[in-house]
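We keep the chain:
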Amino acid sequence: MSVTVEHEKRRKEILESALDVFVEEGYADTTFQKIADRCGITRTILYLYFKNKREIFMFSIKRFTEKLEDEIRAAATVPGPACETLERLSALVLTRCAEQAKLLSVIVGYLEHSRKSGGDIGDKVRRRTIRMRHIISGVVIAGQKRGELKKVSVGAVSDFFYGLMEAAIFRVAVLGLLETSDLEAAMRLFFEGLKA
């Protein structure tokens, strides 16, 4: 039992260190050796935990999105009107995008590389965001049931929410703009328009 716990603990430590290497070096320039060096282990030992660089990257991104999802879920459960909850969620996501600009640029680079290789990047992104979309939809549905929000398409609200998130990611990851106050204002305006 303790061997399994220790193995998982070491995997998490490797993922944290690897994420730093990906952010510093970019996906293409990150190597298995650089990750092993950062972790203070040999490549042979690193292979005991992960098959290749791509697997490490995917697990690192999964950990990042799971942390964000946990934060979104916690913020969504704070009592209050649905519009305030949606504003709080959008501000949280926009803040995390600005804080993780370098990581997001690595992710965008990876997705572009994957697209050029024939990968379905839309599917990859959907799989990573589906639970967060369900949280947003749940807030909208609850607000509609309480009569706080107009009876509009829940899917359309979720798509708009994620459209602005994608705009934020593009701004910080591609354009290098960390200021997102105009997007926050656009979100507030949209949420005001949802009020019943």
Remarks:
- The chain has a mean pLDDT of 85.
- DSSP finds nine helices and no strands in the chain.
